[in-house]
Amino acid sequence: MAEMFDVFARALVATVPLMIIFVGLAGLKRPGKQMGPIGLIAGLTLAHLFWNAPIDGLLSASLAGVAWVVVVFCWSIFGAFFFLNFLKVSKIMEHVKGMFVGKGGDKRLDIILVGFSFALLLGTIAPGGSNFAISSSILIAAGVDPASASVVGMFGNGIQSPYGLLGISIYSISYVTGLELSSISGTTALMMFPFVITAPLWMVLLYDRRRPLQVVVPALLTGLTYGTVAILVATYLGPELPNLLAGAAAIIPCALWMRLKEGRSFNINAEAVLPFLVMAALILTTRLTPPLRSLLTSQQLSIKLYFPTGQRVTFQYLYSPGTLMIVATIICALILNVQLSLMKEVLKLSAGQIIPLLISTSSFVAMAEVMKTFGMTSTMAEAVAFLAGTYYPLVSPVVGMLGCVVTGSTSASNIFFGAFQVEVAERLGISKRVMAATQNVGSMAGEVLSPLNAIVIVASLDMKGEEGTLIRRNVFTSLLYLIMAGALSLLFSSTPTLS
């Protein structure tokens, strides 16, 4: 009994760095670039005082996390920023928007086409809810009221989050847990399937609950198309392309329905489509051509950290999604004869966006690495496993949700709690990859309630002061998703083929 009391006491101490960051972000409204370093200092101090972590070991673990963020994580995100800023600065995004603004017709179909399919496609490269800010602005141009467009955007941001930004959240949880990337990616897509099938119809109901049967068929066909393609892509190609390929495929059933039932026409702009085709072609070619894949993955940058643990960070820089995004952008710029001055502006914008993210994420990952290396995560997992027992899968999604509500990021939530979820699974003898996938799916419920995401969408639509309204209108959705996620987690964790 005394031993268990000691475990709970130490578990409470281990949560202090997380609580400091949560209070700073959610309560004090301080930015991540300020609270991240503070949380890291707290984690280092507690690990040294209560877990007897040596100074050189703390430095080694911290530097391993920072090196991974600088070399792997932020390079991929920088590539996405570079691509998206190119679309904006070159005015290609205006052509993209123009393709989706039809004349007249049922606005609920616009929500399915733009608010779900196109927004998920754009989520491949658009960070921090900006893809749904863009899609919401298109919906407003099509005649949807701003309040409803923002609610739909906030909801959709949760659906795209596990595979957003070239699947960086899957990469994050793979790094902190040591689990194979493909297993987490495929299992996450399987768990998301019931959500994405119903998501287009749910978006419609958030906008207008009258006569939903009129759009049930295109809504379900769109969700089914996205879900099926996403499972195949996530399982066999990895986490970079599910949103791009599944989002593009999901455009087809709704667009055909609008064409056949309403006679709508869509002006396909070659200049707008070109960047997405080049991006998809590059990533698909490098993933599906074994000789080329072997050549690219063989080129690695290896960084050894000269401390007692001898940790090493490797980076397949030619195979990185970030590199391919930059190459795709340069190819498009050359084809379209974009001026060098515009490309310099794209580079400047992207560099300015990545620096704050670099500071906050480096601190978060370093803290998570320290907590995992010196047993702080294990201590928390032991306490939770004792309390929850075999029913832990039911409450596991709540962990992901809370992390995402506070940080506004599935990647950050995965960095904080990915190792914790897997530690609990290991102690309880349940599937570690199912718990990693549950962490992702739970974060979906947090995305639709995060104040940080609400701020991005509301600010972009010039709806100052409406953040609270936006969050309140999505509370029921989040709760429903948590219940579904808990049930799926319990079912999947007891399925032998997924163990």
Report on this structure.
With 499 residues, the protein is an all-alpha fold. It contains 23 helices and 2 strands. The radius of gyration is 22 Å and the shape is globular. It starts with a helix and ends in a 6-residue tail after the last helix. The mean pLDDT is 80.
**Tally of individual helices:** 23
Output the structural class: mainly alpha
| Percent in strands | under 5%
Q: Mind telling me the C-alpha Rg?
A: 22 Å
Overall pLDDT score: 80
Largest sheet: 2 strands, antiparallel
Mass-distribution shape: globular
Strand order of the largest sheet: 1-2
Estimate the helix proportion, in percent.
over 70%
Describe this protein with a few key phrases:
mainly alpha, 2 strands, 78% helix
Overview in brief:
By secondary structure, the protein is mainly alpha-helical. It has 23 helices and two strands.
Give the secondary structure arrangement, pairings included:
Elements lengths: L1 H13 L1 H12 L4 H19 L4 H35 L2 H9 L6 H16 L7 H12 L4 H15 L3 H14 L3 H27 L8 H21 L5 H21 L7 H19 L1 H9 L2 E4 L7 E4 L5 H15 L4 H34 L2 H13 L3 H16 L2 H19 L3 H16 L3 H10 L6 H6 L2 H19 L6
Antiparallel strand pairs: 1-2
Helix pairs in contact: 1-17, 2-3, 3-16, 4-9, 4-15, 4-16, 6-7, 6-8, 6-10, 6-11, 6-12, 7-8, 7-21, 8-10, 8-20, 8-21, 9-19, 10-11, 10-20, 11-12, 13-14, 13-15, 16-19, 17-19, 18-19, 18-20, 18-23, 19-20, 20-23
